[in-house]
Amino acid sequence: MPKMTEVTAKLTHWRFEYVWPDEFTAEIATAPVFTARIRKKQDIPTVLSLINEQYPLPELKHLKRIRRPPASPDHPDEPQAEIIVKWAGIEYNDGATISTALILQDVPVAERLLSLLEPFARVALVSQTRPLTKHQLASSQKLWPTCNTNPIVSVDTHAFEAHHHRSHADFMDTLITGYDKARFEEETSCFRNVVLLVDSRGTVIHRPGSSRPETSGNPLNHSVLRAINYIAETQQAVCVGKRRTPDDEDASAEADSYLCTECTAYLLREPCVMCAMALIHARISRVIFLQDGRADGALKSIFKLQGEKQLNHHFEVWQARLPSEPA
Predict the structure, then answer these.
(1) 231: buried, middle or exposed (CB in 10 Å: 19+, 13-18, 0-12)?
(2) Prediction pTM value
């Protein structure tokens, strides 16, 4: 997964920032659980087996079920382990204590467990979901021991490799050719968006101006949709929504490729929801845009459709930053 550092290559002043879905940048969500201390170290396997059987808690598989409580030099005989028993209700506050017998009253093996656990349990906050980044993992570890799940990414330590950076910078130069800085600072509608589509070989398959300009007033004729329609008309489409590569030797392998499989879309403006969904249906691989769609942007400003798990296709989203002004 790419990461979000701003990188300035020696050969270009373009900077690219990865637009992360909210789940990667949000603080971890916490939820309360009941925990109980195990009286004797030798009973840990038995308690773990019984608790796992009665309360499996698959939602918390990113957490270790047992932790070693903080050592107390004044009380060396204190219990050696603390176990997550089950979910607690939202009415319980972090650190609250409750009778262990009360939280186990619905368990068939309650009597046996009560002989192995301390008489009072407590409420603890733990990470409700699996951490996705190093920052989230560190936050989760502070609450309760957390499995070092992979991949754990950092949102601030990685970007395009140098040769990819130069390539994307060149295509951004092509995209903005003929536009002055004042135009960039204006709000551009999706009808007047500028679209450059490039396939996996680095071949431009749609240039700004390739598709017909919008003159009909049709609310569906946004620039991205016109560009995809242009690909459907010109790229030897063989069935609905798919195309055949013009390269004969690859034709059989890619006969079922969607219109924009392995393609990158360079856009002057962040697409709206309709345009973003069109890019999803065309199976675009990457979107790089320059200008925020402040009123209706679907990849950063208002929504982040690239992070919606319910959708059956996802793509990378990057925001390009304008070249630096000369010194």
Answers:
(1) buried
(2) 0.77
